[in-house]
Give the backbone structure.
Amino acid sequence: MSRRAQARVLHVALAGGSLLTVLPLWWMVAASFMPTGEASSFPPRLWPSHVTAEHYASLFGRLDVARYAGNSLLIATATTAISVLLNSMAGYAFAKLQFTGRERIFRWLVAALVIPGQVGMLPLFLLLKQLGLINTYWGAIVPGMASIFGIFMVRQYALSIPDTMLDAARIDGASELRIYWELVLPSCRPILVTLALFTFMGTWNDFLWPLVVLTDGEMYTLPVALANLVGEHVQDTELMMAGAVLTVLPIVLVFVVLQRFYIAGVMSGALKE
Amino acid sequence: MTRLGALVHYPLALWIPLALAGCAGGAAPPHEVRFWAMGREGEVVQQLMPTFEARHPGVRVRVQQVPWSAAHEKLLTAFVGNAMPDVFQLGSTWVPEFHAIGALAPLDTRLDGPTPAQLDDYFGGILDANRIAGGIYGIPWYVDTRVLFYRTDLLAQAGFAAPPADWAAWTASMAAVQHLVGSGRYAMLLPVREWQPLVILALQSGATLLRDGDRYGDFQSAAFRTAFAFYLDIFRRGLAPVEAEGQIANLYQDFAAGFFAFYISGPWNLGEFAARLPADMAGRWSTAPMPAPTGDGPGISVAGGASLALSPGARDPDTAWQLVEYLSEPATQVSFYRLTGDLPARRSAWDDPALADNSHARAFWTQLQHLQSPPKIPEWERVAGKIADYADAAVRGDLTLDAALAALDRDVDALLEKRRWLLARRAAPPPDAGHPAGS
Amino acid sequence: MSGSGVARFNPAYALVGPALGLIAAFFFLPVAAAFLLSLTDFDLYALADPANLRLIGARNYVALLRDPLFWVALRNTLYFVVVAGPLSIAVSLAAALLVTPAAVRLKGLFRTLFFLPVVTSLVAVAVVWRYLYHPRFGLLNYALGLIRLGPFDWLGDPQLAMPAIIAMAVWKNFGFNMVIFMAGIQSIPERLYEAASIDGAGAWQQFWRVTVPMLAPTFFFVGVMTLIGNFQLFAEPYVMTQGGPAHSTLSLVLYMYEEGFRWWSLGYAAALAFVLFGLIVAVTLLTRVRGRQARDGAVTVGATP
């Protein structure tokens, strides 16, 4: 097959593949704008007969979706900010500073990556109850404030910070904390952005833990509210799709704008393994 | 601490979420009553609140709607997490369970007030479900029992002028309707995740479900077996579809389209049918009490419904109780009925023309005189789940009838093991007479 | 806090302390507590009154082995792992092979589109797919109907429910591994392909003789990560089928969630969690051994992975 024919086949396959991939999301958006009942018509439609925003109005009006979005935003932002800070501190220390047991502790941490998060979930719930954190934003934030994966990511990257730069600063009499704050953080900016992205997206999309720890309806995050909505309104397809769009849209936007960092992070994780 | 010092230098972006995060969900103004209501009731009860708030100035009721599918676990999670609302709705079959964990405040002292006659105004079978160890722990809010919803026109076309009064007539009419509507459609809808229809049949057959003071399963008894066989037979003969819960049931569309003609359901569908069925369906359906195994009188149905309960940790128990009283007033019960179609738990509310003239509600009135509660044990919800599971397995043919019953007995026995241990411990005299008994 | 002048307090501890402290308190401590819990019969009664708690040692684990639902959940989870894993990896590799060649235009666009499902919320996606799978109004059955297949009761037929969930899970996650494969493919030196083509190897043979062996470490990495993730199947069955129909989509984590958070049989749920943990560890170790064997084998034998 000639080069050009090969390229054509490739592009056709790619177009087909991406069409299939995007189709469910397309239907989700289209259905959210359909008038009530149209999403259940047969044959199924891929395009609303006339575009209506009534379901979005319903979500924001009757169902108070702005509050859930606000909760999601708050929890995701706080978790991201704190975890980027704490993980980068620890990651840098594991990479560049000497302390007893450094290698051993790090190996144990990496081994612990295998432990599924759900194992400790129930006792964690009881622990947070003792601390009075059930049904509070902190209860949703606290478990995500430091993560082994985050420390790992930063440490791998921080290994490549030139020691000479750090030593020079030490000779000048800078404290370790100052070195971290003024030298290391800026050097690690790419990985920090990636880590922030991972954490923000992961926290926003997190479902099980907020489901369990936030008992008050007003505290629900978007995914939890959506699942709740499904429980009651499963017959209202279009409304459900509007809710799904609202849950998905912010993250998709963040991703599209910052995908360079995200993809780089995924790739670097693979290569440095 | 250096950490604190460092905190001062953090950019503003960090402070704002931290500060906001400090606002826990629990802080609330005084005289606010948190009320959790489930399902459709949760959506609608909000409309009754302005009247209550007008009567009690300074009081605000915050209603949270919880879907039934998640209600049980949300309540338990909230209890464990010390985040219970002040007033909450719960299924009446959950009362023993929540009482066992101490999530319900006793209500007897409050009921000994100026209206002692109030208790008599409730349907006996329904109130009984809320009575544990002689004390009242829930106030029935609305009554639920299952009756037969059916298509009058399809039944008439099949040659039956009246709804079936006994199992024989029921089978005959279902077969006739099935014949009429043809393949691809059915006579009755029996969602396999619901335990109520099978338990109703069992109670009607005289099965006790559990034996020995509710310590063991009694599912291999002749009575239960009869009921189970009857239930399975409905599916075997193609009279009901083997349906799944994952499938989004478009119940109302299907009923209107004649996809099925019989449906065992509760009073919430009185309102839903009226609201969601197309207008031309108005005279073509009705309700009837459950058929009995033999012809003498209507069959028993299961006592259900929801109660209102008070949390022992309520911050303002008196105001919370006032909300319960308000919702229990006959006038409020009637308003509630108008909004939801849920049937009032108080008999006097039924005198209102809205109900007295409602022909569909009449079947419920009759049925409410013939009720039985399932065993009032904390593990009931799990036992019911097991019943539904094994019924499902038998209906799909994964297990034979006998295998299903044996497995059900085995699983339920295992579920009740802790209960047996606790009862045995309570019965045995404590070794040291100075200590009070265990729980 | 100045560096070397002060007494021996190592500033590294200040940097490492907060993160490690939090991880210890909110991860390791609960995991240890879960192990202890699994040795008791902690349940609702015990919640009400600690006197109702019994230390029962390994009885939870024994009961687990005798519990038919445990075996169902295990079987379903293994079904998912064994099918969704390789399928997802194959699809990811295929997508990566499609997007990486230099001849491809709009590479970034395609890569983004393929990656889009990864960043969406699982709950939202599960809700959408629930409607797509509707036997009468769903897009999938409609499309299949156009080529005279079906209709299938995707989420209602116990035989089809797990495949339906697998399909959705593959769709959701293939983009992630695709990107990793892309990195791996791009790092294969061009001269290897040139050498193979000089030897007369066609595109297909080049794939097997060059691409696949060079991607072996990537396969390993992707494989292990996917494996561990797949064992933790939860949100899809929770939102789409609640473990049904007839428990055909009950996964281990879902079972653990139900026992733990629905019925508050915490002792039993903790035992379930540890069995899952043990399973994952065992399988991970197994892949390490196999991986080492494969690597040793690849060095001596040559192209066979």
Summary: DSSP finds 14 helices and no strands in chain C. Chain C touches chain A through 92 residues (CB under 8 Å).
